[in-house]
Each structure stands twice: as C-alpha cells, then as structure tokens.
C-alpha cells in the first residue's frame, strides 16, 4: 500500500526544533503515539499493506509488494466486493461476448457498452482500435479469447496509474487532500491515517475544512480513534491552519502531515483560488511541500470525475488520486478515460487507492490487472 523509506533507526526521530517553530506551533490535541507492533505481528501487518519486511533494523528501503501475494484470503474477499460493485458494468460488457462470431456487430455492441460504462468517447475509440489490432495479431476467433484481449488492453492502458504512495523521503511528508463535497475525502484521510499509524508512522492531521463544523468533528473522531494528533481551529483561515500544522509537524518530528481541505466544486473559481492559497502557504511553512496533492474522486460521478480531475490538476498540479464508492452505482469505465488523459498529460497521475465501502479494509491499493478483470466479469 505504501512505499516507505527509512533513513534512520525507527520512524520520525525528531530533529532539534527551531525555537521559532516552538513559538509558532499551535497547541494540538495530544494523543499517545501508536504502539509499535510486536515482532511476531510486524511481518503480517507489513505484508498486509504491501510492505516488505526490514532486512536490517538500522537502515532499509522496503519496496512495495504485490498485495495479491499478501493475505490472499483477505484480498480475494475485497476483490469479490470490487467485482460486485462493478457488476452492472461488467455484465453489460460481458454480454457482448456471449455470441459465436467476431464481426462488426460485436464491435458496435462493445462500443455502446463501453460508452455506457462511462469510458468516454476518446477512451472507447482507443480501446476498440487496440482490441482490433490485438485480434488481428493473434488471429483470435473465439469471443472468449477476444474478451481476454480486451482485458489485456484495459490493463495496459491503466498500468501507468498503478504506483505506490511514497512516504519517508521528507520529514514530515506533507499530503494535501482535496475533493468535492461528498466524495469521501475525510473518511479516506481517516483510513490512510490508520494504515500509516499501524505501520509505526507518527501522523498529524490538519483540519483545514474550517467552514464545516461537521468536517472538523469527523476528522477529530478519526484522530482520536487512530490515536494521532490534530491541529484544528474553529472558523479560522484554512491556510493558517495548514501553516500551523506543518510547522508543528516539523517541530515535533512527525513523519506525515495530512491536510484536509474544504470540499468544493471545480467550477467555483473563488474557492479553487483559495485552495491554491493553501498550497502556497504550505510551501512557505516547508520548502518543497506539499509533497503529495491528492484528489478524492467519487466513482459514481462518471465522466464528471474526469472533469474534476482536469480542473483540480490545472489549479493544484495533482500527484495522485483516490477513487471511492466503487460499491455503489459506479460504472468504472471512467478510469480508462482518466488513464488516457493522464497519458496525454505526459506525466501519469497515479490512482494510489480505490475504495468499495466504508470499512477500513475497503480502501486498497489499485492494481490495473485486477481492476480490468473485475470490470469484465
């Protein structure tokens, strides 16, 4: 799930704090540091979230593992929920391949099914052209074989989006999280915090959604549940809260600072400008920060999800995505549209995680091959 880089013994050893930092750092709600896992439990916990075990207690650079090889029973259970969430899409595409002939009628039906799956015109045309070339190259005549070739094409298109979230290259690693109202942003932050804490990271949360009391309260609940610190301010300036949080994170030697920002529509220019301000102020609090700018996208919004990604990327320069609520009416094809746009962008915007429910275990790393198979079943 994460790729960690540890340069010292243990996580988040604090450096000598600048007196100025101590002066400006706000009083955060303290909480006990998360307990380190026992030696017997550590390997299982690490592999559960795609981390390699440490060969040395002094210095190590673990690489993300294939989550399908860790706790296969749990992963299969989660994949079943993903398939169930995408069943409406999968069944409509799978029906295209129930015949016995590979002809123009099949391709026309497949085009309609992909469009209905929210793949969009450009991605649909790309996948159809790619599939026809694969059929020609392999001389496939069986519809089942053509369906497998389509899965290969989708997986290849989505593969650049399959990357690990990098934690530990900076102390703290500052993550700014954005998204429209109702996308599941604050819940996603809570789940990420839990996973990070379970791996020994010292996390500090910034409740920068200062306009909505419920958002601050929800984030405070997650902070209490995960036993991490939180910087919060009622009715304050979001940029000021994030500045205080990053300053506090530096002074306290935190490993990760996660800033929850106010939900907003991409069409609200003045609110998007405020997000830009938050990002600039984070940069003033710490050079090179934020190190990650994540957008949480509701998988049920179809092609509107691509519109959101483009708008937030123009405003903030996104470094990654989290796609949530794939257990609802989500059609899933929009990921193909995002992947094609990402390819044209030049630098991929990876999908770090996808979610299929409210449970902690329902947020998992994105795997292109798994998703392609789930989409066609």
Give the domain tally: 2
- Terminal CA distance reads 25 Å
Whole-number average pLDDT? 79
Looking at CATH, the homologous superfamily of the largest domain is P-loop containing nucleotide triphosphate hydrolases
Oligomerization: single chain
Percent range of helical residues: 40-55%
What spatial order of strands do you see in the largest sheet? 5-4-6-3-7-8-9-10
Top-tier CATH class of the largest domain = Alpha Beta
The helix/strand class is alpha/beta
The poorly predicted ranges are 5-70
* CATH fold-level name of the largest domain: Rossmann fold
Q: What fraction strand?
A: 5-15%
> What is the ordering of alpha helices and beta strands?
EHHHHHHHEEHEHEHEHEHEHEEH
Number of strands: 10
Radius of gyration: 22 Å
- Helix segment tally: 14
Overall spatial form: elongated
Major β-sheet, in short? Answer: 8 strands, mixed
CATH architecture of the largest domain: 3-Layer(aba) Sandwich
Protein name: Signal recognition particle receptor FtsY
Subunit structure: Part of the signal recognition particle protein translocation system, which is composed of SRP and FtsY. SRP is a ribonucleoprotein composed of Ffh and a 4.5S RNA molecule.
Biased composition (Low complexity): 38-48
Keywords: Cell membrane, Cytoplasm, GTP-binding, Hydrolase, Membrane, Nucleotide-binding, Receptor
């Amino acid at each position: 799930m994460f790729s960690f880089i540890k340069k010292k013994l243990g996580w988040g050893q604090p450096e000598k704090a600048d007196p100025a930092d101590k002066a400006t750092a706000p009083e955060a709600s303290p909480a006990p540091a998360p307990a380190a896992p026992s030696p017997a439990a550590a390997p299982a916990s690490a592999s559960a979230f795609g981390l390699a075990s440490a060969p040395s207690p002094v210095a190590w650079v673990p690489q993300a593992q294939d989550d399908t090889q860790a706790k296969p029973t749990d992963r299969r259970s989660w994949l079943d929920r993903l398939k169930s969430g995408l069943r409406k899409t999968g069944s409509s595409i799978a029906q295209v391949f129930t015949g016995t002939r590979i002809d123009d009628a099949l391709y026309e039906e497949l085009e309609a099914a992909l469009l209905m799956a929210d793949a969009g015109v450009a991605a649909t045309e790309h996948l159809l052209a790619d599939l026809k070339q694969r059929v020609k190259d392999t001389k496939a005549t069986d519809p089942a074989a053509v369906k497998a070739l389509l899965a290969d094409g989708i997986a290849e298109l989505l593969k650049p989006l399959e990357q690990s979230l990098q934690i530990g290259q900076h102390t703290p690693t500052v993550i700014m999280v954005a998204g429209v109202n109702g996308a599941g942003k604050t819940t996603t932050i809570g789940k990420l915090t839990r996973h990070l804490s379970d791996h020994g990271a010292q996390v500090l949360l910034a409740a920068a959604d200062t306009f909505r009391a419920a958002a601050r309260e929800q984030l405070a609940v997650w902070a209490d549940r995960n036993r991490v610190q939180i910087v919060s301010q009622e009715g304050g300036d979001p940029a000021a809260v994030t500045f205080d949080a990053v300053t506090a994170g530096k002074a306290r030697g935190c490993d990760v600072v996660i800033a929850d920002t106010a939900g907003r529509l991409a069409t609200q220019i003045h609110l998007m400008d405020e997000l830009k301000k938050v990002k600039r102020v984070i940069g003033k609090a710490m050079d090179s920060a934020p190190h990650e700018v994540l957008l949480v996208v509701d998988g049920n919004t179809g092609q509107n999800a691509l519109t959101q990604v483009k708008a937030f990327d123009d405003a903030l320069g996104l470094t990654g995505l989290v796609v949530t609520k794939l257990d609802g009416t989500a059609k899933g094809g929009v990921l193909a549209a995002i992947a094609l746009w990402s390819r044209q962008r030049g630098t991929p915007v990876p999908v770090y995680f996808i979610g299929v429910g409210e449970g902690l275990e329902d947020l998992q790393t994105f795997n292109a091959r798994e998703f392609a198979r789930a989409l066609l079943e």
